[in-house]
Amino acid sequence: MAKAKTFYQCQACGYVSPKWLGKCPDCGEWNTLAEEKKETRQGRKSSGRSEPQPLNTIVSGKEKRTTTGIKEFDRVLGGGVVAGSVILVGGDPGIGKSTVLIQALSGLSKKYESVLYVSGEESPEQIKLRAERLSVDSGKIMLLAETSLENILDTASELKPGAIVIDSIQTMYTEEILSAPGSVSQVRECAARLMFFAKKSAIPVFLVGHVTKEGAIAGPRVLEHIVDTVLYFEGDRGHSYRILRTVKNRFGSTNEIGVFEMTDSGLSEIENPSELFLSERPLNVSGSTVVASMEGTRPLMVEIQALASPTTFGMPRRTSIGVDFNRVNLLTAVLEKKAGLHLSGMDIFINVVGGLKIIEPAIDLGIIMTIASSLRDIPIDPKIFMFGEVGLSGEIRAVAYAEQRIKEAAKIGFKKALMSRTNSERLTAVEPFGLEIMGAGNVEEALEAVLGI
Ligand code: TYD
Ligand code: MG
User: Fold this and answer.
1) How far is the CA of 234 from the centre of ligand 2 (A)?
2) What are phi and psi of 382, to 5 degrees?
3) Integer Cα distance of 118 and 134 in angstroms
4) What whole-number distance in Å separates Cα of residue 395 and Cα of residue 405?
5) Which residue's C-alpha comes closest to atom 1 of ligand 1?
6) Which of 100, 109, 184, 279 is deepest in the core (most CB within 10 A)?
7) Where are the alpha helices (DSSP H) in 303-363?
């Protein structure tokens, strides 16, 4: 006996209420509760019981990985696609999710009899047009325009493709749930069934997930818990490059990034992103410096710009793009108190060039130095780069991966490195890659060494 049960679920946080409410009592969002129906089966299905077994008797096979041939894509996956894994690719509409996945499928199709691209958004003709533009070899890529999960799973079981792309998970529905496609329960159920299918058949499944206005995939982060790997596509409309970032990965490290450029013929890989981010750097102007930041295991050289100008209103403004606003406030306070620079009458703007977002504290030193450089109108030597965390008493702290950062900088022609004293002392033991290493214990020493103030 099956009985249909109606309830209301918040599409933002997943809160369930028996009655409709205007405001979600859990997350406080307005107008997010939507009607959902669920078939409840009466009586419990008994499933086979599994026995506990000692850990050391379990034989682990090394996970089987297949490379897509797109190096940047393989990198974010941790070295290739793991058999039977479910990978969620999220991002704003039009950012290039469909494009990157069709390119990855084309790479995978070289290793399998067939691969399956299921689209619930575009017609096969539209996909064909895109594939032509990307000049992908389309003989082995099977297209399926379908939104019913049951039909997709039937087709996939017959076809046994090497990989499946579901574009997008929000357009899919299963007949077992009566709610509309895209609702929390549909998305969750479809993803869970695809996950089950992937594990059983060892076929990797890529899910395209749209990001809501608030930046979450499908409202609540339901999907992120289910899948093995979550990749986010970032980048802004004003720039042609795109960053694919690993947010979660059961088979590799998180925080890896892959850098691509959107061209007329699809996404092309950028092997040396540091060069790209520094390509338009103005030399010998004040308020600009280069920091060596780590994105996962990868060093990235980025330019940080600051502008300090006298404030026209009573309240000085602090604006930051690409770095945490509170961090900038904290660092300006350190500059004011510990280095004696007068910033209270200044508007301060900080920008990480190229639209990148950096959360690492190793860029603190760079932020401090650019603000000081702009304030005093003294350019920072363009051959210097820096990294280091700044503490509240003005001390410069050591950061990890100093060698990798220096190596990357040396590769693209930097000559001097400014870092914490601890980092510089540890480095004297190893080869400093032909760079002049400058160590500073606190902000004052760093200002003296670089700007002479
Ligand atoms: P798409 O992959 O359809 O985005 P999503 O699936 O994330 O919604 O990419 C669409 C955008 O990419 C569109 O604005 C056009 C642009 N584009 C190119 O610039 N070059 C290309 O070769 C392709 C296929 C798309
Ligand atoms: Mg798309």
Assistant:
1) 14
2) -65, -10
3) 18
4) 21
5) 96
6) 100
7) 325-338
Supply the pLDDT for residue 10.
85
**Residue identifier of the C-alpha nearest atom 15 of ligand 1:** 94
d(CA 90, CA 74): 16
243 class by beta-carbon count within 10 Å (0-12 exposed, 13-18 middle, 19+ buried): buried
What number of CA atoms fall less than 13 Å from residue 398's CA on the CB side? 11
CA distance 98 to 233: 11
Distances 166 to 18, 124, 146 between C-alpha atoms, Å = 32, 14, 10
- Give the pair of three-digit tokens for residue 233: 């596509």
Mean pLDDT of the chain: 88
Instruction: Report CA torsion sign: 191, 195, 197, 203.
Output: positive
Report how far apart, in Å, the C-alpha atoms of 161 and of each of 98, 113, 117, 125 are. 18, 7, 10, 21
Ligand of minimum distance to the alpha carbon of 168: 2
pLDDT score recorded for residue 220:
45
pTM of the model: 0.79
Percent helix, percent strand, percent coil in the chain, to nearest 5: 30, 30, 40
Query: Which residue positions in the chain have pLDDT lower than 50?
Result: 1, 43-44, 220
> What Cα–Cα distance (Å) separates residue 230 from each residue in 31, 176, 204, 297?
28, 26, 13, 17
pLDDT of residue 314: 83
Residues in contact with 80: Cβ distance below 8 Å, sequence separation at least 6, in sequence order: 65, 66, 67, 68, 74
